[in-house]
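Recall the central idea of this unit: under ordinary conditions, the amino acid sequence of a chain determines the structure it adopts. In this exercise we apply that idea directly, starting from the sequence alone.
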Amino acid sequence: MKWRCTWCGKPHAENDPPCDECGHNAFEEAIVREGDGESTSSPAGGIDTGPSYVWACTSCGREHVKNNPPCSRCGNPTLEKAEQTYDDVDRELNTSGWLGVTKPYLPVVAVVVLIGALFATGVVTPSMLPGIGQPSPPDAPGNGAEAAGINLEETEKLVHDLLEDEREYSRTYDDGIAAYAEYNNRAFVAHEYDGRTADSVDSSDFGVDCRGEPTAGKVRVRFSVTDYDDAESLAADLAAIMAPSDRVTGPGYDGEGLDIHVVDGSVYVFYATC
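Accordingly, the structure predicted from this sequence is:
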């Protein structure tokens, strides 16, 4: 047998008023109601104790478990008895899940993932972003990697080795200076053939730590790459042209780099030292 408050309807295990919710001093037996042959017990098998009551503020609607004015929210002195509902519980159960919360941010997440994928696959490199990495060499006609079956990048290193044999003071082959030379060489070729002007650059843009700007310039070459069968013979003639220059083989420099670019057989060389 259970008991409930005759005022607020709260169940109690014993007939021992007052009610610990509203303070009312009368209980009644909570029994299973019968009607039309069907039990009114709860779906879980418990006893239907009828509706529960609260005290609602007549001003702001705040619900209180006891008739103990004033309203704890707005201070209104009048509370009225009302049947308790569970609308707030329904609203909480209908709250959006994580997908609903994150949905407005999905486009941003998609862009971040796409950029990460482009960097990971090499489609986009840091140098393509302003202020990040070395400047990318400008587009220019011809080729700076291979021409007439000769590996031009290998030729560049061979020229350095041959010039080292001519020097009293050694210089290292610096990739930063070589990148600086490549940018300037392509800029010259692009202007020569297409009339395009590339952005000016400093050696510091390529990570070169120089006392001022590197000593740099074009090497005058009058022969065609088609006159050569391999990188060794091409490198030998280029080194022979460059070696007499004091800026190429003289003292006072620690590193160097050069770039070879070929357009329709014509050989363009840019040399820089620091």
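The two ends are 100 Å apart (CA to CA).
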